[in-house]
Amino acid sequence: TEAGQGIGGGDFCIITRPSHLGRLATDARVHFRVTRFIMEAGVKLGMRSIPIATACTIYHKFFCETNLDAYDPYLVAMSSIYLAGKVEEQHLRTRDIINVSNRYFNPGSEPLELDARFWELRDSIVQCELLMLRVLRFQVSFQHPHKYLLHYLLSLKNWLNRYSWQRTPIAVTAWALLRDSYHGGLCLHFRAQHIAVAVLFLALQVYGVEVPAEAEAEKPWWQVFSDDLTKPIIDNIVSDLIQIYTMDTELP
Length: 252
Hints:
Cyclin A, domain 1; acetylation; 66% helix; 12 helices; cyclin
């Protein structure tokens, strides 16, 4: 892969050229499906939102460094869940990960017997985890937008009048947008603070809510939250989010 500088100041995995676009779109659809699996499996395993976000980020970062054809993405996903549990101190048993994954692909199936197939799969997850740690150079701890979004929502709640805040589910929508952003590679391309502001910006736009005194203010409200944020960065994050939702409508 080739390194490139993201608009948000982060590193992009690949510089997009016309010859790459078809392959990138195909890969993006695979990654969308697999991260949806990570999220659904994570919920069934009782994982908190931060460990799930870490699992998705580990997955995306691994395939930023390697070729999708070289590894089974669902095995990488299972190993990402396992590794994220360790990183975020929410330890998960490989047996539970295997059984939840098996039921995801075979709804209504019974838990796997502790036979040769089970132990082979368990060993594959452990070996894949070691490979991922080496590929990622043991850099598997990330700063997520969650704490920033919580802080920004509390500030915005104090700025808006009570009626505007209570009649529109801005907070719920912003959290949903943030969760859905992990279906794509936004977590690698943009800074955590910028993603947090952008999902809040989009949530306000969705419901047509304006921040009081915006016209008279010296700087826009979103720049108060993040000094180095620009409107083009917000636009690019929103555009990437919209692409994720477009992909969701196109996939079966």
